[in-house]
Automatic annotation (TrEMBL):
<dbReference type="InterPro" id="IPR025959">
    <property type="entry name" value="Winged_HTH_dom"/>
</dbReference>
<protein>
    <submittedName>
        <fullName>ISXoo2 transposase</fullName>
    </submittedName>
</protein>
<dbReference type="Pfam" id="PF13358">
    <property type="entry name" value="DDE_3"/>
</dbReference>
<feature type="domain" description="Tc1-like transposase DDE">
    <location>
        <begin position="172"/>
        <end position="313"/>
    </location>
</feature>
<dbReference type="Pfam" id="PF13592">
    <property type="entry name" value="HTH_33"/>
</dbReference>
<dbReference type="InterPro" id="IPR009057">
    <property type="entry name" value="Homeodomain-like_sf"/>
</dbReference>
<dbReference type="InterPro" id="IPR036397">
    <property type="entry name" value="RNaseH_sf"/>
</dbReference>
<dbReference type="InterPro" id="IPR047655">
    <property type="entry name" value="Transpos_IS630-like"/>
</dbReference>
<feature type="domain" description="Winged helix-turn helix">
    <location>
        <begin position="99"/>
        <end position="156"/>
    </location>
</feature>
<dbReference type="GO" id="GO:0003676">
    <property type="term" value="F:nucleic acid binding"/>
</dbReference>
<dbReference type="InterPro" id="IPR038717">
    <property type="entry name" value="Tc1-like_DDE_dom"/>
</dbReference>
Length: 355
């Protein structure tokens, strides 16, 4: 009788960037760190943290490692893959391409030029996925952006604002303006291969302007305008905040020109006993929690939405914002996606002293 031979286990290779990130997430989950905080610390979407938790419960605490699939050995050795990571991280222009765009075709060319190996585009796609890469839309940063100034603001000015708000018992409100057009924010959607989904929209493009503010508790205040936003509209929203919120109000917003309008300065001076205006560092939208709320509205809630006209658009935007207003938990989760280190939320109260 022949003895049964079990299949040899595939050997685990070097730890990939994706595995390192997952291991950190597992460690934080094991210590009981909140999922939103894990997402903020590791700069990942909160959905990925949920996937980690589900995988960890199902497969165990060591499941942060990828299980290699049996097959032909890879064409690149670990040292070459590390070198490829460096090339890709430096950018396509640094390698000699005219634009800052890595395509599968260009990576195929790099592999052939550097090591003489031949990959198909689909093979490159699978390899890059194993290496922890994904296809992403680049973030656009202004040339005028002062990185050191932004870091200094986060380290020194922001904690000072929180201490001042705690001392004066002021409500901190992050304010920002945005807009939504009748044309959709196009998002990927599932469909059968070869059957591209079609969005039937009006050819006319009209815009609805929105101004919103969120507090550390996740309370949302908003207003919509069909006309262009100016200093008068910004002043009206400040007045709305003072009517809706008791006590002192500390507004933090960007350096937009309407925030420096004479009407705004006059209103702030007349209400200086209750109102303070602070500014984010220039060209740093990723630190504004209100920006993440706009992302939820326009991409998650209204992705691929085609408005028939401006009335339809305003009605839909208002309905969705009212729903968000009733869900401070959703807003707080969205706010955690900003890079601003926010204080912990306990029982609905912001602990400003821990900022």
């Amino acid at each position: 009788m022949k003895a049964h031979r079990s299949k040899p286990k595939a050997k685990l290779g070097p730890i990939s960037p994706r595995e390192r990130l997952r291991r950190k997430g597992y460690g934080l989950l094991a210590r009981g760190v909140r999922k939103a905080e894990i997402a903020r610390q590791l700069h990942v979407a909160w959905q990925r943290v949920w996937e980690w938790e589900k995988r960890r419960k199902k497969l165990g605490p060591q499941s942060w490692r990828d299980i290699p699939q049996p097959g032909r050995p890879p064409k690149l050795v670990p040292k070459q893959r590390t070198r490829l990571e460096v090339i890709l991280a430096k950018g396509a222009q640094a390698y000699g391409y005219p634009t800052e765009l890595w395509t599968l075709k260009r990576v195929v060319q790099v592999l052939r030029k550097e090591w003489g190996v031949r990959y198909t585009p689909s093979g490159v796609w699978r390899m890059l996925r194993r290496m922890g890469f994904s296809s992403q839309v680049p973030m656009t940063l202004a040339l005028e952006r002062d990185v050191k100034g932004i870091r200094r603001w986060v380290r020194k000015v922001w904690p000072g604002i929180m201490e001042h708000a705690h001392r004066t018992k002021a409500t901190v409100v992050f304010v920002d303006e945005s807009g939504k057009q009748t044309t959709p924010n196009v998002r990927k959607s599932w469909a059968k291969k070869g059957e591209t989904p079609v969005l039937r929209c009006s050819g006319s493009r009209k815009r609805l302007n929105i101004v919103g503010g969120v507090t550390l508790k996740g309370e949302l205040h908003f207003a919509t305008h069909r006309d262009n936003m100016g200093g008068t509209e910004a002043m009206w929203f400040l007045e709305q905040l003072l009517e809706d919120i008791r006590g002192k109000v500390l507004v933090i917003w960007d350096n937009g020109s309407i925030h420096k309008a004479p009407e705004v300065r006059t209103f702030a001076w007349l209400n200086r006993q209750r109102l303070e205006l602070w500014r984010f560092p220039p060209y740093a939208p990723e630190y504004d929690p209100q920006e993440t709320v706009w992302d939820v509205l326009k991409n998650d809630m209204m992705g691929n939405y085609c408005a028939t006209d401006l009335d339809d658009l305003e009605e839909t935007v208002t309905r969705n914002l009212r729903w968000l207003k009733r869900r401070p938990d959703v807003i707080r989760t969205a706010m955690r996606q900003s890079k601003l280190p926010l204080p912990e939320i306990a029982g609905g109260e912001a602990i400003a002293a821990t900022a």
